[in-house]
Design brief:
The chain is of the alpha/beta class. The protein has nine helices and eight strands. The mean pLDDT is about 95. The structure holds magnesium ion (MG). The site of magnesium ion has 10 residues, from loops.
């Protein structure tokens, strides 16, 4: 039986110091003249497709493909600056957990560690590269096309099936929001929720993850959950 691990990025692997949000707000200002974000749009657990669509519509702009692409290209240009200036960090225990995971998996299964995130593909990789984590991940499912995170999980499931992963194998989704738990249910995956983002343990409990931890500061304990 194979094990597959799909990690969320923001609030799970790293805290970017709201670099993505900052770059999105600046992109909106530069491309569309929006001086102040005046609509209340949640970011955590959502896809970038959903967030940007709501940002455009919330400021009276059309969310056409052309507008969307214009925004996206500016965002990709601005993100490195925001990552550099906002002093984010890799969350405690994450590097050690990823190292231990690689060591624990047989060589033929190293490609079974991937990303499952609402980030756009390009900016998702930019974030993990900024923090030197990219070598741990061999693939990803991203939020470019879908408003609903469940559909991103379905993309991951299709990819895994093509790679020969079957129902007998164990797929873990690891994330920090109720939306991560919900998208795991959409594909019948197990889910480890971590209260290292904006959601507390009490916030995450009602979504009923298979396992719930405060953080990854004890990587051996996390591994014992993932391989139990
Ligand atoms: Mg997250």
């Amino acid at each position: 039986m194979s094990h597959v691990f799909l990690f969320d990025i923001d609030g799970t692997l790293l805290d970017s110091g709201h670099a993505g949000q900052g770059a999105m707000e600046e992109a909106l200002r530069i491309e569309f003249g929006v001086e102040e974000i005046d609509c209340d749009i949640p970011f955590a657990g959502r896809t970038d497709r959903g967030i940007v669509t709501d940002l455009l519509i919330g400021h009276g702009l059309k969310s056409t493909n052309e507008q969307f692409t214009k925004f996206q290209q500016r965002y990709f240009t601005l993100l490195p600056k925001h990552l550099n200036k906002r002093g984010g960090c890799v969350l405690p225990g994450v590097r050690q957990l990823l190292e231990l995971l690689s060591a624990r998996l047989p060589a033929c299964s190293r490609e079974h560690v991937g990303l499952l995130t609402g980030n756009f593909e390009q900016s998702g990789w930019m974030k993990v590269q900024h923090f030197n984590l990219e070598h741990h991940f061999s693939f990803g499912a991203f939020g470019d096309q879908h408003r609903d995170r469940d559909d991103v999980a379905r993309d991951a499931a299709i990819f895994l099936k093509q790679k020969g992963i079957s129902d007998r194998d164990t797929v873990w989704i690891i994330g920090d929001t109720p939306a991560d738990v919900q998208c795991a249910r959409a594909i019948g995956a197990s889910v480890l929720a971590v209260a290292s983002g904006i959601y507390s343990r009490e916030d995450l409990e009602p979504s009923k993850p298979d396992a719930l931890v405060d953080d990854f500061e004890d990587p051996d304990h996390i591994l014992s959950i993932l391989f139990r």
